Amino acid sequence: MPRITLIGAGSTVFAKRLIGDILLTPELRGEVEVMLHDIDTDRLKTSEIVTRRLAKSLNLDISIQASTDRRAMLREADYVILMMQVGGFRPATVTDFEIPKKYGLRQTIADTLGIGGIMRGLRTIPVLEEILQEMEDLCPDATLLNYVNPMVMLCMAINRIAPERKMVGLCHSVQGTAEELAKDLGEELKEINYFCAGINHMSFYLRFEKVQKGEREDLYPRLMEIAQSERMPKENRVRYEMLKRLGYFVTESSEHFAEYTPWFIKRDRPDLIEGFNIPLDEYITRCENQISEWDQLRRDLEDESVKLDVCQSHEYAASIINAMETGVSSIINGNVPNQDIISNLPSDISVEVPCQIDRNGIQPLHVGNLPPQLAALIMTNVNVQQLTVEAAMTGKREYIYHAAMMDPHTAAELSIDEIWKLVDELIEAHGAMLPKFH
Question: How far apart (Å, rounded) are the C-alpha atoms in residues 250 and 110?
Fold first, then answer.
């Protein structure tokens, strides 16, 4: 009976989704133990209530435990799912937006790259080190499933801290974008076959085709037609523009991708921001809306008289656990060490590639060389990610400045002197959320 531990289980809506997936998987129904951990006791209590309601609605009698004692929840775990946000919305995320804004540097999501992604990585990696040490002590054979951003930075850090740990980083951008493109094309997702590779939030569909009655149709010409027409979705103007320029469609949303490059968010070009429909401060707005709605949502989630919807999502966690437990093979797109998988990217980074999952674990599929323009664009992000991890692992402050200098969006907006001052101000504002850098 696999024991599954969720770290950051106070993210109730996401926890409900993952746990619902697991409990809806026929081979796992009634055959799991669910262990919930969070540092927020109120949120943790709600997640425990929701988990018990999920099990009850499915007529399952499973073991469910919840505790703020992380070590207790990690003991003898078979799978550990990371889903926490170090520093929370306040003060950490707000700080990541408001201080750069003083310098004229605007962001949309700020959790993956850019100055926001750098700071999020720096405050999260020390917590990862603690968790990895506890796992070594309490569940040395457990498989780690990481959902926490900045994905590439954190997976690279995990691979350095605990290179023998069975681990995969998970996101929904590959399968989520495939669904979006199928909708744009008026096609059924089940009839679409794709092969996608790169790094998290900057993977590209190297193949995107329709398979019907043994016949294969390359769908890129039709996607290119959309890019050139008025049918192009308003919310995806950035990505369709990149399709026109690069020849391939990128996985992460336009609002994300706009801040990974120097071309779309410019303080002296409001026409670009409006023309490409870029939602500045989108993550702040989203979080504030969720917070304002939380009390009512919590009451509904806890209220036995309110129906609790349970449906299978497109997240990968349940299918990975099922494949490793039963041997029934599954293909996912996961973040793994680049051990001769993508030939024209560095070997010490984390790449997002198709992986076969079964009793043998996580087995990445070989990709080879990416088209050179894609590898070049990816490297502009990798430079920032490598330097941020280096800062976290060595404690050297200079690497934080270097990471910010190399960030495409930050460098396009600020002078070197402004970047230095911005980094200093952010480090000071973070205070005890960061380790001491020298």
Answer: 18
The mean pLDDT value for 412-424 works out to 98
Spatial separation of the C-alpha atoms in residues 163 and 174, rounded to whole Å: 25
- Where exactly does CATH 3.90.110.10 map onto the chain? 88-109+171-280+315-438
Tokens of 391: 């800062």
**Which tens digit of pLDDT belongs to each residue from 190-242?**
999 999 999 999 999 999 999 988 899 999 999 999 999 999 999 999 999 99
Position of tokens 């993508």?
342
Strands 361-364 and 350-358: antiparallel
CA dihedral 213, 215, 220, 225 (to 10 degrees): -70
Kindly indicate the confidence band of residue 356, based on its pLDDT and cuts at 50, 70 and 90: very high
| Nearest alpha-carbon partner for 134 in 71, 67, 78 | 71
Residues 6+ apart with CB under 8 A from 383: 406
Does domain 88-109+171-280+315-438 fall into CATH 3.50.50.60?
no
Which residue(s) pair with 428 in the sheet? none
**Boundaries of CATH 3.40.50.720 in the chain?**
3-87+110-170
Residues recorded for the chain: 438
With 0.85 as the threshold, say if the pTM is over it: yes
Best CA proximity match to 239, nearest among 228, 229, 225, 249 = 249
Kindly state the tokens that stand for 186: 């008026």
β-pair partners for 197? 204
Calpha distance 87→208 (Å, rounded): 39
Cβ–Cβ < 8 Å for 149, 117:
yes
Which residues partner with 350 through β-bridges?
Answer: 337
Asked whether the beta carbons of 13 and 313 are under 8 A apart, the reply is: no
**Coil, helix or strand for 315?**
coil
- The CA R_g of the chain, rounded to the nearest whole Å, is 21
Q: What are phi and psi of 134, to 5 degrees?
A: -65, -40
According to CATH, the topology of domain 3-87+110-170 is Rossmann fold (3.40.50)
Q: Is 330:342 a contact under the CB 8 Å cutoff?
A: no
Known catalytic residues are 172
Indicate left, alpha or beta for 331 from its phi (over 0: left) and psi (-120 to 50: alpha). beta
Look up residue 334 and give its amino acid.
G
- For residues 342-362, one letter each, b for 16 or more C-beta atoms within 10 angstroms of the residue's C-beta and e for the rest, the string is beebeeebbbbbbbebeeeeb
3-class DSSP assignment, residue 187: coil
Which H or E run includes 137? helix 114-138
